[in-house]
Design the sequence.
């Protein structure tokens, strides 16, 4: 049986709900990806080109600092990375998180929440941060997804 981790970044709490639901149905460990400097609502104003999130997302090499690390990452075979879609990709803090670890031999599976956009270029943008891992095709879910639907997808993508 694979040891599973659900690591999530949630700016508004929506993705946190999805990640907790997934961890429960998969009997997985849960880890919150927290920025060293928390985001304010002004930071998250995507309409403002000078907001922190806009500046970070316009520079694909930018890596926001992460507070805390997963202890014993080597014990996990599968890592679900959950996040809100920002500008049709994962927020760059997810790249920061993944790049902290040796992911060799692991399976990384993105899943996202979004007000309406799909996964866009998520895998292409995450791939360089997953060196040595198998990066599976991710999926966007509404926060209201049923436990049954989430579990069925997760079990299928893990097999």
Sequence:
């Amino acid at each position: 049986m694979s040891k599973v981790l659900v690591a999530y970044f949630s700016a508004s709490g929506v993705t946190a709900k999805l990640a907790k639901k997934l961890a429960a149905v998969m009997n997985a460990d849960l880890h919150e990806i927290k920025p060293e400097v928390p985001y304010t609502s002004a930071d998250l104003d995507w309409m403002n080109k000078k907001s922190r999130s806009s500046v970070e997302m316009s520079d694909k090499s930018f890596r926001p600092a992460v507070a805390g690390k997963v202890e014993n990452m080597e014990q996990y075979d599968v890592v679900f990375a959950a996040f809100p879609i920002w500008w049709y990709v994962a927020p760059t803090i997810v790249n920061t998180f993944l790049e902290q670890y040796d992911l060799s031999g692991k399976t990384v599976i993105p899943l996202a929440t979004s007000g309406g956009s799909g996964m866009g270029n998520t895998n292409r943008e995450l791939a360089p941060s997953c060196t040595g891992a198998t990066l599976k095709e991710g999926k966007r879910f509404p926060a209201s997804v049923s436990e049954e639907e989430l579990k069925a997808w997760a079990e299928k993508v893990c097999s």
